[in-house]
Design goal:
There is one protein chain. This protein is an alpha/beta fold. It folds into 3 domains: 85-328, ANL, N-terminal domain (Rossmann fold), CATH 3.40.50; 425-520, Luciferase, Domain 3 (Luciferase, domain 3), CATH 2.30.38.10; 527-656, GMP Synthetase, Chain A, domain 3 (2-Layer Sandwich). Helix content is 37%, strand content 21%. Strands 2-1-11-10-12-13-14-15 form an 8-stranded mixed beta sheet. The longest helix is centred in the first third of the chain and has 34 residues, at 50-83. It is globular.
Length: 661
């Protein structure tokens, strides 16, 4: 969706103003001074840029009032949590007392009531306490398929002790997995039997020397890793009595979760989610969707991500809303699940919407449309071209697209279902709203400053860097950062618009139109998003260089009508001896599937000098277009699971959408 400029109908404002102000002069037969005042007011409103602002205000007034009301309700709720020094366990315990037998989670394994989750999480807390876990220790949690309700149960159990839960993506292995464990200084690691081989591979790494292993065999009898403790047998003998004393020692500012994110550059980092931040994220979604305890939310998103864990699960832990947890997104089960559990709200990412729409178009059957009760969906990444078809095909009254990051303080939401927009802010409040778009270098992404050293705000329809003002002791505008202090420091800009201020650098390029709507354009950093996951180019480059010993550049490239960017590697293979399929075998052992490059370009050399950024940018623009690239390009064929030359026919199939991603 292109940036929308305000085109004022010729003479409209002039006619309206004259029509409102001049008639009183004749009808009321006003005196000299009154008439003079009206004439001056009329001239004032018709000069300068005031007709523009009058038109903008008239077009957006009711929209902006709705946003202000929405933000006010969020602030009111958050203020209440802060006054109570609330934590997630404290709020959850109150819900248990209010309706112990109400279902909090529907899973593929069955239903869980509030009382059942409370008892189970207390057992977990006692077990972790027996293993020596105390306040401040980081408890790594890595659950494969079937994790389901065990995710929030372990979050609660560890938080009773004041020990933050480290949500480790279950698709990690080898070097990247060891990095995540080290980055959070994990004290003990709870893993399910699905990941036995993955943990076995890294257990002898020096970084694992002091990490206690807790193996959870879910309904199966499999061998225990050497020196690992059995979770199942230990839980059987644990009491369900609340850990009240330990829980009361925690405060809203304490760490609740660590969620991994690549940010926009570098290796994955553990973002800090305090209790108050978790409550704020959950509240934001709850108020946005006007949810209550009678709603049922469908959550098909991974629980190691912010949307699945905070927005999805949070509705159950914080607000008493029943939540359906799907271990893994399924096209065939999405709508049948929504019908079965009578869901009223659902979460999405762009890929989910595309998969559902493609399936409906392919089968030609949408019998379930009249049966589901979904009144609203919330998420991000829905392409503007799919917005209207998706909404109409599945009869979804409201779609709320939002923009946010796990660690960031710059959040936007599209309350009006304007296609392609990720949110808006009132234009008349733009000067005081804590979110800005500033000019930046197109190549480096670095902010451009004026002769006084301050950043320059972009004009409407001018692409720039999105930043959020950091206001300490403010739960919405604060920036908790990462566990790594240096990574935190790099994300903060100082002396931006005035001396002494500080802003969070999102690393994202956005554009805002005349009406205050924001549109996502690109990322300035060296990460990209694919298959709903953030890919760290630094991490992939390091792995490939270690495997083959050759220089490599990793970057994301766009594929028509596909969300995110596919990974592409430019490898300097001077002697021509590189075996790509051996490389692929090695990458599968180390990297998750989404991080393995889809395209490989063989180049004479890779510059690591100051021109590196320029070369990488140019390669990204050239992408995999073999009509303009002289180098040989290979494509990862999913069917044969091999890299094959990208021929003109294959290129055409990729561009046309014949090959699905």
């Amino acid at each position: 969706m292109d940036c929308e400029e305000a085109v004022i109908p010729k003479g409209l404002i002039r006619t309206v103003i004259l029509g409102l102000l001049l008639p009183p002069i004749f009808i009321l037969e006003l005196g000299y001074f009154s008439t003079s005042f009206i004439l001056v007011a009329t001239a004032f409103l018709l000069t300068s840029n005031r007709p523009y602002w009058i038109y903008i205000t008239a077009k957006t007034l009711f929209r902006d009032i709705r946003l202000i009301d929405y933000v006010s309700r969020i602030l009111f709720t958050i203020r209440g949590f802060k006054q109570l020094n609330a934590t997630v366990p404290k709020i959850f315990n109150k819900l248990v007392q209010r309706h112990p037998q109400k279902i909090i989670f529907h899973t593929e394994d069955g239903q869980w009531t509030y009382q059942q989750l409370f008892d189970y999480s207390n057992k977990i807390g006692h077990m972790l306490k027996d293993f020596g876990i105390k306040k401040g220790d980081a408890v790594g949690m890595m659950f494969g398929d079937g994790g389901g309700v065990r995710h929030p149960a372990f979050w609660l159990g560890s938080s009773y002790l004041g020990a933050p839960a480290v949500l480790i993506p279950p698709n990690l292995k080898s070097i990247p997995l060891v990095h995540t464990i080290k980055a959070a200084n994990v004290t003990c690691l709870v893993y399910t039997h699905h990941l036995l081989d993955v943990i076995k591979e890294i257990r002898d790494d020096p970084a694992m020397k002091h990490v206690k292993l807790l193996q959870y065999n879910i309904n199966v009898n499999v061998p225990m890793l050497k020196n690992a403790e059995c979770v199942v047998s230990k839980l059987e003998i644990m009491p369900t009595t609340p850990l009240t004393n330990e829980m009361n020692e925690s405060s809203g500012s304490d760490h609740f979760l660590y969620i991994y994110t690549s940010g926009t550059t570098g290796l994955p980092k553990a973002a800090i989610i305090t209790h108050m931040r978790y409550l704020m994220i959950s509240t934001t979604a709850h108020k946005l969707l006007n949810m209550n305890e009678n709603d049922v939310l469908y959550n098909p998103l991974p629980l190691h991500h912010t949307s699945g864990s905070c927005i999805g699960v949070g509705q159950g832990l914080v607000f008493g809303t029943s939540v359906v947890i799907r271990n893994k997104f399924s096209v065939s089960h999405f709508w049948t699940d929504c019908i079965k559990y009578k869901c009223t709200v659902a979460l999405y990412i762009g890929e989910i919407c595309r998969f559902l729409l493609n399936a409906a178009e392919k089968s030609g059957k949408i019998d379930y449309v009249g049966q589901h009760r979904v009144r609203a969906m919330v998420g991000n990444g829905l392409r503007s071209t799919l917005w209207k078809p998706f909404k109409q095909t599945f009869n979804i009254p409201h779609i709320y697209e939002f923009y946010a990051s796990t660690e960031g303080n710059a959040a936007l939401v599209n309350l009006t279902s304007k296609e392609g927009a990720i949110g808006f802010i009132p234009r008349f409040l733009s000067s005081v709203w804590p979110i800005k778009v500033i000019k930046c270098d197109k190549l480096t992404g670095e902010p451009i400053r004026d002769h006084n050293g301050y950043c320059i705000e972009c004009k409407p329809c001018e692409a720039g860097l999105l930043i959020g003002k950091i206001v300490h002791n403010n739960n919405i505008n604060t920036f908790n950062g990462y566990l790594d202090k240096e990574s935190t420091r790099k994300k903060v800009l100082h002396n931006v618009l005035e001396s002494g201020d500080a802003y969070f650098n999102t690393g994202d390029i956005l554009v805002v139109d005349d009406f205050g709507y924001f549109y996502f354009k690109d990322r300035t950093g060296d990460t990209f998003r694919w298959r709903g996951e953030n890919v760290s180019t630094t991490e992939v480059e390091n792995v490939i260089q270690k495997v083959i010993g050759l220089d490599v550049i990793i970057y994301g490239v766009s594929i028509p009508n596909v969300e995110g960017k596919a990974g592409m590697a430019a490898i300097a293979n001077i002697d021509g001896k590189l075996d790509l399929n051996n490389l692929l075998k090695d990458l599968k052992k180390i990297l998750p599937r989404y991080a393995i490059p889809i395209f490989i370009r063989i180049v004479p050399n890779v510059s690591t000098t100051v021109t590196f950024k320029l070369i990488k940018t140019n390669m990204q623009k050239e992408a995999f277009d073999i009509n303009h690239i002289k180098d040989t390009v290979f494509f990862l064929d999913d069917g044969s699971s091999t890299y094959v030359p990208l021929t003109p026919d294959l290129y055409s199939d990729v561009i046309s959408g014949k090959i699905r991603f």
